[in-house]
Amino acid sequence: MNIGEAAAASGVSAKMIRHYESIGLLPEPPRSEGGYRRYDERALHTLRFVRRARNLGFSLDEIRNLLLLWQDRGRASADVKALTLRHVAELETRIAELAAMRDTLRALAEACSGDERPDCPILADFAEPGSAPSAGDRRHGSSRDGNADDGNASDGNARHACHS
């Protein structure tokens, strides 16, 4: 089948198929007399494998390693499991970072009254020197009393209103 048919059958776009070939993730297929790529069932199987791994968040390098393990019938399943558990640990780290970002943004939004006044602690925080925290920075997380802590508030009321 041609690249369009392979794309439709695998769920991988023709552009991505060409990309995977260019980086060596997928072997370059044989070509027809007219120079068109020709894909067989094995190529489709590989494309589906790559698509599933990408959908699960594996990087291209990780997928390359998974493909090598998949094609090596003498491999130990422990190698596949170890690679997968490393990926799970990375996902858990990213999830924690995203949760911290969510919590920071929620606290900032709660600190803003959202009225017609132009002053807003959200924008003030973004413009604050050194306020480019990493994803895991909890500087603006919740305090023990459940109120947002912007590090500048002197009392509970200042934490919830946009400052004029």
What can you tell me about this protein's structure?
Helices cover 52% and strands 0% of the residues. 13% of the residues are buried. By secondary structure, the chain is an all-alpha fold. Mean pLDDT is 84; it is low at 134-164. It folds into two domains: 3-57, Multidrug-efflux Transporter Regulator, Chain: A, Domain 2, CATH 1.10.1660; 80-159. Residues 120-164 are annotated as: Disordered. Residues 1-69 form the HTH merR-type domain.
Secondary structure layout plus pairing:
Layout: H1 3-10, H2 14-22, H3 41-55, H4 60-71, H5 77-111, H6 121-127
Overview features:
single chain; 164 residues; mainly alpha; Multidrug-efflux Transporter Regulator, Chain: A, Domain 2; 2 domains; elongated; DNA-binding; DNA binding; transcription regulation; transcription; Cu(I)-responsive transcriptional regulator
Count up the helices.
6
Total beta strand runs: 0
User: Which structural class should the secondary elements be placed in?
Assistant: mainly alpha
Mean pLDDT: 84
pLDDT under 50 segments (min length 5)?
Answer: 134-164
What is the percent of helical residues?
40-55%
Rounded to an integer, what's the Rg over CA atoms? 25 Å
Main sheet: strands, sense, barrel: none
Order of helices and strands: HHHHHH
Span of the ends, CA to CA: 66 Å
Count of individual domains: 2
Strand coverage percent: under 5%
Protein name: Cu(I)-responsive transcriptional regulator
Biased composition (Basic and acidic residues): 136-147
InterPro entries: CueR, DNA-bd_dom_put_sf, MerR-type_HTH_dom, MerR_fam, Tscrpt_reg_MerR_DNA-bd
GO biological process, one term: positive regulation of DNA-templated transcription
